[in-house]
């Protein structure tokens, strides 16, 4: 581990005890970025990804992503600002489209970094939030019944996932794309077959909501390596409540069941992703005991 990484880890540990040691991005073609700020070095790794039309990642963000893994060490906010300035200068003259973005993920509790990112035109778009393994909240008053989903529920689950994705297109990173229904249906089938941790809420037999979860252990190369402490975690992949059923306690009833099941697997906590601009989910998840650990910032379109 180099001195910059040691300094970064020390800063992260002081910011938030749930932050793991930093990890290099999974892309082997990362490009280094080195600067100085106030005589102190700061570094980072740049990656560039283009998602093919019709692919799963293209549903959830721009098709072209330029990402910075920043390691300002003990140079602090000044080092992060210098890295962003150098990144912008490096991309000057690079062709980009409206369907592109520059991204950076940073600890949510670092307010000084937030100020730097806002000043550089970035907006907070996604939070990775965590919940410690406390007893789940009660289901609260609700007319719905919650049961484990089966393969025969695939169409109802697909409609609920489609409703959630369409809403996320309005308030989050999702992007309207052709073929979304087919991709979401394939994901429903995969979740039913492999994780089995999918629940359906029904109001007098009518689908009112669904929750899809999984068990995850961070490992090199996956999307949560370097984002969560080592060990087994419960992942709340999707919670969707039918538009007509919102505000009736459906989400709370689903998560009472899902949390009880996940905690039964001995997880060290649960995690999920939500969008700060969503007027519904942040309040709900905070009441469920989640709090932001990482924030993904995005500038759209990418610098060019």
UniProtKB/TrEMBL annotation:
Q: Does the keyword Nucleotide-binding apply?
A: no
The record's Pfam families line, in alphabetical order, gives:
Acetyltransf_1
State whether keyword Iron-sulfur applies: no
N-acetyltransferase domain location is: 144-304
Question: Which keywords, in A-to-Z order, does the entry hold?
Answer: Acyltransferase, Transferase
Q: Which residues cross the membrane?
A: none
Q: Which Gene3D superfamilies match?
A: 3.40.630.30
What CDD domains does this protein map onto? Answer: NAT_SF
Protein's UniProt name = GNAT family N-acetyltransferase
């Amino acid at each position: 581990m180099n001195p910059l990484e040691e300094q970064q880890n020390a800063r992260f540990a002081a910011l938030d005890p749930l932050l793991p040691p930093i990890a290099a991005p999974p892309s082997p073609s990362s490009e280094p970025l080195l600067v100085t700020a106030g005589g102190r070095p700061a570094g980072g790794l740049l990656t560039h990804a283009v998602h093919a039309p019709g692919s799963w990642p293209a549903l959830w963000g721009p098709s072209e992503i330029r990402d910075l893994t920043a390691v300002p060490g003990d140079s602090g906010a000044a080092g992060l600002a210098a890295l962003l300035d150098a990144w912008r200068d490096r991309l000057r003259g690079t062709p980009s489209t409206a369907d592109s973005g520059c991204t950076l993920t940073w600890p949510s509790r670092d307010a000084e970094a937030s100020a730097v990112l806002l000043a550089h035109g970035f907006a907070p778009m996604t939070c990775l939030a965590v919940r410690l393994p406390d007893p789940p909240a009660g289901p609260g008053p609700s007319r719905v019944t919650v049961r484990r989903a089966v393969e025969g529920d695939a169409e109802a689950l697909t409609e609920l996932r489609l409703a959630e994705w369409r809403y996320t297109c309005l308030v989050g990173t999702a992007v309207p794309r052709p073929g979304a229904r087919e991709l979401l249906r394939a994901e429903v089938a995969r979740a039913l077959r492999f994780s089995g941790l999918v629940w359906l809420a029904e109001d007098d037999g009518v689908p009112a909501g669904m929750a899809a979860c999984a068990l995850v252990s961070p490992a090199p190369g996956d999307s949560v390596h370097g984002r969560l402490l080592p060990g087994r975690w419960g992942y709340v992949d999707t919670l969707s409540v039918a538009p007509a059923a919102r505000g009736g306690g459906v989400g709370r009833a689903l998560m009472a069941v899902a949390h009880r099941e996940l905690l039964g697997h001995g997880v060290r906590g649960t995690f999920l992703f939500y969008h700060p601009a969503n007027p519904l989910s942040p309040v709900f998840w905070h009441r469920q005991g989640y709090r932001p650990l990482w924030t993904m910032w995005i500038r759209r379109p990418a610098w060019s």
